[in-house]
Amino acid sequence: MNAPTTSVSLKDALARACSEIENTIENLLPMVPGDESILIEAMRYAALGGGKRLRGFLAVEVATLFGADRQAALRVAASVELLHAYSLVHDDLPSMDDDDLRRGQPSTHKQFDEAIAILAGDALQTRAFEILVEPETSPNATVRANLALALAQASGSAGMVGGQVIDIRGEGRALPLDQVRRLHALKTGALIRYAAESGAILADVDDARRAAIVAYGRDLGTAFQVADDVLDSTATAEELGKTAGKDEASGKSTYVSLLGIDGARAEARRLSDRAREALSSFGAQADALRALADYVVERRN
Amino acid sequence: MNAPTTSVSLKDALARACSEIENTIENLLPMVPGDESILIEAMRYAALGGGKRLRGFLAVEVATLFGADRQAALRVAASVELLHAYSLVHDDLPSMDDDDLRRGQPSTHKQFDEAIAILAGDALQTRAFEILVEPETSPNATVRANLALALAQASGSAGMVGGQVIDIRGEGRALPLDQVRRLHALKTGALIRYAAESGAILADVDDARRAAIVAYGRDLGTAFQVADDVLDSTATAEELGKTAGKDEASGKSTYVSLLGIDGARAEARRLSDRAREALSSFGAQADALRALADYVVERRN
């Protein structure tokens, strides 16, 4: 693999968005007194525990590209990050992936307990939808309703959760490439695509621009997952901040098991290039999104 | 306790709404091919397994009282029932209430497995929000966004899930009456109140009428819970379709442990009467809602 060529400007933009998204989540999950405070603690633990904020960054960058209000964009970014955090909390549970470690820290059910982790995930999902439909997100109610609708489509049974079920059912048996593609398009792709699309929905752009962003988000999401499979089979646990080589050990079909390391790397590059092409009608303001397409296939964690 | 005085017209209205809500849920959770079909099966198992449809009935009756479209009202009713179903699936999990039986049938994690039950609950929540913001629910986007916002407030960390956490944390220690009231206001009251309010939001009524319905829904919800505690300590498992006497066995403070059976019955009646009073500005079209206030404190299961 070539040395990462992540541009300085992408790094800066990522770092800035990361910090702004973190602050926004902080404000959107205020502590409360009473016995239920442990729930908010667990929600904050799960949602503020770092992470690349790739999804939130996508939402902010696309919204900014189209001139949406940055504070509103940060709310949408926070919403998609809370949705993502809920999915990780539930994925890590003993009856699911049974992962004790997340981003190098105890996963939520290890830090708290299983019941609190399930409920924190539940409440994070609720909060993600709540934020989108609150008037502060947009004065335009159609925009608010459409944001929530697109998030539901991306994360429910026909999206992320559906993909998770296919993943669980497929464990221990070899899936053909088209089924692995579909699994990931649902499990991780749909939410990444939504993250990009949400910026376009917030900015209320025309169908052509929204379609270009959806195409970009779709390819970026797949590229991300292919690169993830490559990382899982080549990086160390220390680099990843989570257990490495787990997919291989559990007998899951991955892009690497189906295409080989070199084939998977080439596939990730092809998808990343196609994602960039989807942005061809946009000017230099989309450069951070273009650089992001490189970053997702070149990252080391 | 007096013999139930549930009026024939309430029984008819309940039976009609029950069947319409069941059909609506059927249509809103269509089966799909592929490995994820088991997820939809589990969602349907959890959501179509009977139940009184009290929440859905409330939504439909209030919406009808205010002249909203019945098909739209049934969608809102289905949404609140899906949200309720998700909460039951997660509540029954081994790390939560660990209940093997629900409505006389194996609970979802017994019928399927724990992972599928968690994911089915997750997807039911998502679908509940999705239905509300779909254009079919209302041509008015503000109505759609407000329905979703009110559902999020009623079901998230400051509502149902917050109440569930207080419940879990309070197990095995005696809570004073005001904390038991708050627990139930959140855990079960908020969603019942929302169910009534959702009909008013859908019909886009003025603030005064919405406030009257909210007051009705709040007292009805508390009356329901007090009556539930009475039932839990007096009815048999066969009558309830679930394990009886569980709260007492787990050392939970209940209205019965705090007020005694007779005191709890009187409290339920007082709340039911107050719920009826909240409807005083409405005519005979609200009679089913009035009869419902009697029904919730006189029911045997």
UniProtKB/TrEMBL annotation, chains A, B:
GO CC field: cytoplasm
One of the GO biological process terms: terpenoid biosynthetic process
A molecular-function term among this protein's GO annotations: metal ion binding
Protein name, as recorded: Farnesyl-diphosphate synthase
Protein's UniProt keywords contain Disulfide bond: no
Database matches in NCBIfam families: FPPsyn
InterPro entries: Isoprenoid_synthase_dom_sf (IPR008949), Polyprenyl_synt (IPR000092), Polyprenyl_synt_CS (IPR033749), Prenyl_diphosphate_synthase (IPR053378)
Cofactor(s) in the UniProt record: Mg(2+)
UniProtKB keywords: Isoprene biosynthesis, Magnesium, Metal-binding, Transferase
Translocase among keywords: no
